[in-house]
Amino acid sequence: MALEWVVLGYAAAAEAIMVLLLTIPGLDGLRKGLIAVTRNLLKPFLSVVPFCLFLLMDIYWKYETRPSCESSDACTPTEFLRHQKSIMKSQRNALLIAAALVFYWLLYSVTHLVVRLEQLNQRVERLKNQD
């Protein structure tokens, strides 16, 4: 299961880097190429959404089937420590899922806005040239 989390982490990092590069001012020369690359990657990155849902169901299943260590007599110290580590990993993984989904949404929104801004700038230039 660790490989799935690594893949999701890399996808979230790639999304974050693309959002950052699209929003940094002063990269006008690179922006057209970056917009083209980002628009082409939006559909493959959409696969992050069902992948996140699958991993979320996996976390839920692990949560429902884990042994209960509520009282100190129910578990040995080793089992209690393993239980606590499992809870911490599940919380970390849930944060990673949320980050991947938020970064995908941001990437989609920012790309749409940048493309729309570019279209409006072209329209303004055409109107200036007509007058």
From TrEMBL:
The keyword Protein transport applies. One of its GO terms (biological process) is intracellular protein transport. It is found in: Endoplasmic reticulum membrane. Its main location: endoplasmic reticulum. The chain crosses the membrane at residues 6-24, 45-63, 94-115. Keywords: Endoplasmic reticulum, ER-Golgi transport, Membrane, Protein transport, Transmembrane, Transmembrane helix, Transport. Signal peptide: none annotated. GO terms for cellular component: endoplasmic reticulum membrane. It comes from the Eukaryota. The keyword Magnesium does not apply. It is a multi-pass membrane protein. InterPro entries: BAP29/BAP31. Belongs to the BCAP29/BCAP31 family. May play a role in anterograde transport of membrane proteins from the endoplasmic reticulum to the Golgi. This is Endoplasmic reticulum transmembrane protein. It comes from Fagus sylvatica. The lineage of its organism: Eukaryota, Viridiplantae, Streptophyta, Embryophyta, Tracheophyta.
